[in-house]
Amino acid sequence: MSNLTVSRHFVQAALTGAEALGFDTREMLRAAGISPDLLRIDMARVSSDQFSRLMQVLWNRTGDEFMGMGPRRARTGTFATMCALVIACPNLEAVYRQAYQFSRLFEPMVAMELETQGEKARLVLRIEGEIRDPCYFLRESILVIWHRLGSWLIGQPVELEQARFQYPRPPHGDEYRHIFHCPLAFEAGETALTFDKRFLSAPVIRDQAEMRQFLKTSPADLLSRPDESNTWTGRIRALIGRDFSRPLPDFEWIASELHISPQTLRRRLKRENTSFQEIKDLLRRDLAIYYLSRQELAINDIAAKVGFTEPSTFHRAFKKWTGVTPGAYREGDRGTLKG
């Protein structure tokens, strides 16, 4: 099972284009295994598997990889064709230049353009024409897909130094901390990702067979499942594991396992916009949401599984995370919310 969840905001934002085009979005949610009732809970979250399925349902039903939000339609298969082209590139710089050339073939253009200056490289978002993207989902998706596709092709995360956005900080801006793992700047001159130029010379290590496998679930997986393996956050999540029924390792032990001093690790986590306590809390929250979807588990048993000795403490913590009690959350997930 994947132990990551996606905020209700992104579920609703992903559907805005399809809704404007007149599609039955409740039916789309159900096709992805998401109860429409669950979305009535303000702080609800869905599993990354459910979100992946929703993205695939959206692309298939609309026949548009821009999901009705772009300045034009991007026919299904556009992303796969671009991937077939860039897999032959020698390194990451060639990947980004080739992907930009491919995207320029379509008018109006939607692409990320690579710029270099000194030791820095930037991927700058270029969108021509009018877009219908009130929740910024299309723009966020393009940034994430190009960044994570590049990381996958070279077999290592391209560590971001800054993410800049032309628009004001949106109400869901807090989620950006966990998407980009780097300092954020809003109301900037352009929407762009900055990273060290050294990544551009990294060779492409994937082959055609791996690309075919990758395309079975992408780009949906790129959006729903960040590759955190090489972030400090991801390494700590891996060390903590999923068994919260026994005492968790402390920060000092984690730091020693990562061969780094506790002070340096704190600084690194701050740079990734998080903390050790937050990592533990979010892991507990995601695990609790996963267990609540398994109807055979009693809520008190779930409390123990996620590390709470007192069910009442679990109820309070869960309400803080999601705004509702575990029981109400389960009702919403089952589609039996009243009123």
UniProtKB/TrEMBL annotation:
One Pfam family it belongs to: HTH_18
Keyword Disulfide bond: no
InterPro entries: AraC-type_N (IPR032687), Homeodomain-like_sf (IPR009057), HTH_AraC (IPR018060), Tscrpt_reg_AraC-type_HTH (IPR020449)
Keywords linked to the UniProt accession: DNA-binding, Transcription, Transcription regulation
Source species taxonomy: Bacteria, Pseudomonadati, Pseudomonadota, Gammaproteobacteria, Pseudomonadales
The protein, known as: AraC family transcriptional regulator
Sequence ranges assigned to domain HTH araC/xylS-type in this UniProt record: 234-332
GO molecular function terms listed in the Swiss-Prot or TrEMBL record: DNA-binding transcription factor activity; transcription cis-regulatory region binding
GO CC terms, sorted: cytosol
Gene3D superfamilies hit by this protein: Homeodomain-like
